[in-house]
Each structure stands twice: as structure tokens, then as C-alpha cells.
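Late entry, written up from scratch paper. The run itself happened at the end of the previous shift, but nothing got recorded in the book at the time, so transcribing now.
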Amino acid sequence: MKNYPNLFTSASLDGTAKIWTLDTFLLLYTLEIPGALQFCTIFNRSELFVSQTEDTLQVHRFDMVLENYLNSETCIKEISAGYESHSDFKEGQLGFTMCLCADNSAFINDVESKKSEYPKCTLYPPPSAQKILRMVYSYVLDRFLVLLSSSTLCVYKRVKETALLERILDPSEIRDCESKRAF
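Output as recorded:
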């Protein structure tokens, strides 16, 4: 990537485009395209990814995602996409990115940071006792869910520049929504 010499991108007909680091060969970000992918390509110095499904042509901007990588004080080990609604997901309209860092910290960055009063949001308190395995956003609950290595689930609500810990769910408290039983 011309503007990011230590990164490179790849695209595949399996419906994904990926950003990799050359220095550590780690996968930073995977963009998944909903629908049966018929065509994909990366162009404009690897900053734009174009995909075509049966009825949709989409243009995705990698440069928005890469702002997280460049503006982080610590080494980012994973970046994942966040969508404000189901329709945003279906249309590929990225709202924010969620970053997991090597020091077990996590933060959320709005894609259009110039339009947001609080473009970067950190988790407080950080779940530092256990390793963060995954962070996802539920637009139904309007909450960030953080899965720890202990199988504990931390629920965070975003309030301005901080996502506040709202609840900690022990594995015995997590229920299957269909059968209402504990896992």
C-alpha cells in the first residue's frame, strides 16, 4: 500500500478483503461482503475495495479503517467492523471500527471522525484481568460485548468518549435465547 508501506491488502472471491502487516505478518482487518460475490478488486493505491454481488456494487474505503492503525499508541492486533443497524450491515455502511490491542486494551473509532464530537472511545474499566478474545457490537442492545478468556462476557455502553462497564456475566449466567437454559 503506497501510503502505508508496512501494510498490504488482499481480496478474494470468498467475499473478503483483508489488511495485513508486513512486519509481523498478522491479519489486521477482514471486510466481509454479504451476498454471493461475483467480482472484487482493490485499486487507488490499495485504499479502495470494490465488490459486486448479484444486485449490488459497493465501494469500501480502507483508509478509514487504517486511521485506527496509525493513530494507536499501542500495537493493534485486530480491527473489526461495526455497524449501527442491520440495514447498514447489508449496505456495507461501516459506522465504526473496534480495535483489540496487544496490551489487552480495546477502543472504538468512529469512521467519520470529523463529524463526531467523540471520535475515539475507550473501554472503562478495561477488562485487564483476563485476555480479550473478541469484541462485538449489538445494534439491537446498543451495547458492546467483550468476551474474555475466562468465558466471562463484559457488557459496555458507550457514553461519549468512554464505554462504561455495565454488567459482567459469568459463564453460568449466559443463557441460550431459544431454550432459556444455561450453557
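Residues 81 and 97 are 5 Å apart (CA to CA).
(Scratch paper discarded after transcription.)
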